[in-house]
Design a protein that fits this description.
Blueprint lengths: L4 E5 L3 H13 L3 E5 L5 H8 L3 E5 L7 H9 L6 E5 L2 H9 L6 E4 L4 H15 E4 L4 E4 L4 E4 L2 E4 L2 H11 L8 H8 L8 H18 L6 E4 L3 E4 L4
Parallel strand pairs: 1-2, 1-3, 3-4, 4-5
Antiparallel strand pairs: 6-7, 7-8, 8-9, 10-11
Helix pairs in contact: 1-5, 6-8
């Protein structure tokens, strides 16, 4: 089985090396980046399963990077900070991170939290035998898989989190645009249309994502 990849973004060599050693001892593959300006290029090329992202970095800071990563990827992000009061600020800004770790930390705890985030990032439903893999923006079912854009995957992940539930356009906007940017109903409709077309091409006549007249959209659990 291929080792899961963790991108360690940390400019303190001793801390970066310590984290990498503990992660590799637990079976992960790691890659260390020590400058914020290099993160996006490495992330796109290496395609990690999770990112440990320090807040204070040379070049781009971690908070800025978190927002930029979320613009094109749903890879799990664990923010690392040395200041306790910064946790509240990060949470308040809804940076899009999946977890927050405060320095000084136990390397074993970091490994455990990486594992926990990875478990949450892969949503499975055994009865339906479908898989949503956030680290790869991938939906798998019936031996076939579809890779989506970040926005399409976030929509599908939201809808599939509660099969049968009707989501209004406003609710979907709040989930996929946490920065509360102004978008129109037509923007959501356009994204859903592309999502449905991709699903219908891969899984004809299944109607996984359905529109509900005057209400919104829902995901129907595959049989």
């Amino acid at each position: 089985m291929t080792a899961r990849r963790v991108l360690v973004v940390e400019d303190e060599p001793k801390i970066a090396s310590l984290l990498a050693d503990y992660l590799e001892h637990d079976g992960f593959a790691t890659h260390i980046v020590d400058n914020g300006n290099d993160v996006l290029a490495v992330l796109r090329e290496w395609r990690p399963d999770a990112v440990l992202l320090d807040v204070m970095l040379p070049g781009k800071d971690g908070l800025t990077l978190c927002g930029e990563i979320r613009a094109f990827s749903s890879v799990p992000i664990l923010m690392v900070t040395a200041r306790a009061e910064e946790i509240d600020r990060l949470l308040g800004l809804e940076s899009g991170a999946d977890d927050y770790i405060l320095k000084p930390f136990s390397p074993r705890e970091v490994v455990a939290r990486v594992k926990a985030v990875l478990r949450r990032s892969v949503a499975t439903t055994e009865a339906a035998d479908f898989l949503l893999d956030a680290s790869r923006l991938r939906f798998s079912w019936r031996g076939c898989e579809v890779v989506f854009t970040a926005i399409e995957f976030q929509l599908l992940q939201c809808l599939a989190s509660s099969p049968g539930r009707i989501w209004s356009r406003e609710q979907l906007m709040d989930r996929i645009y946490p920065d509360h940017r102004v978008v129109s109903d037509r923007t959501i409709d356009s994204h859903v249309k592309k999502l449905r077309r991709r699903l219908d091409e891969a899984f004809p006549a299944t109607g996984l994502v359905q529109s509900v007249y005057g209400a919104g959209y829902r995901f129907e659990r595959p049989d």
